[in-house]
User: What shape does this take?
Amino acid sequence: MHTPLSSSCQTCTDMLPSYVVTDAMLVYQVISRGDLGMPKHQELYRMTDWILSHRSPQLFSTADESGDMFRAFRKGLAPCFSTENLKKSFPKVRACAEKMVSMWEKMYLATEEPVLTDSWMNRATLDIIGQVGFNYEFKALDFEHNTFIEAMHENLIELSTSMGENPFDRLFPFTSQARQSAARRRRTKELFNAVYEAVKSRGEPPADDQSIGANLMRIKNPSTGQPFPEEIVLANLTIMLIAGYDTTAATCMWALYDIARHPDVQKRIAQELAEAGLLQVP
Assistant: This one.
């Protein structure tokens, strides 16, 4: 198995300088907020909101970290990432991983060609976050083409290459480029709306459901005691889904690539898996 940069990654890196940060303290500074963190580029966040069709405040782009929205959603979503809840989610993660590996084996036996893992990781992580985070079936591993992945690919490429809104699109919305961009954003918004409507249609979630979708439905505005407006809940659902899908896929691709370059590490990982009863040998 090997993991070359996908065509989408190559397009992005051709347009913009890219950096891989590996120093733990520097990573902490990059992602932290407040006095210890690096200043956040608010214009980039605004562009991200525009590309993803949501202009409502959400955890990723808000500049007001002391406001009701930021504090309520950060606190309300914390249980999703507890050790206990992550352990409960492991069977679903393992099932998706086993399904993907089984498909890789069949492909390799049929062609004896290396399996390109980048697109497969996108599909697997989308299925995992759909099931674990929202009890929603994207079925990305079941079909060669997936509407969500294709729409997100188009939007992320637009964000990376144009770095946001072309001011002429507002002045001349009838141009071919402006119409295509608007159509992409509409498709993306429809997909996120479908996930939101599926979560909302289930009604009050049971107490033991600590998924992202369930906790989003529980969050109340501390100032009013009432639920936040739907557009704010939808905006936060959108950013949680994107953050869990694209970043996880990229991390897994690079992890497999690095492991493949170090046979000694492969042996240690296999040993740990065997000791835990998780190693499967074809």
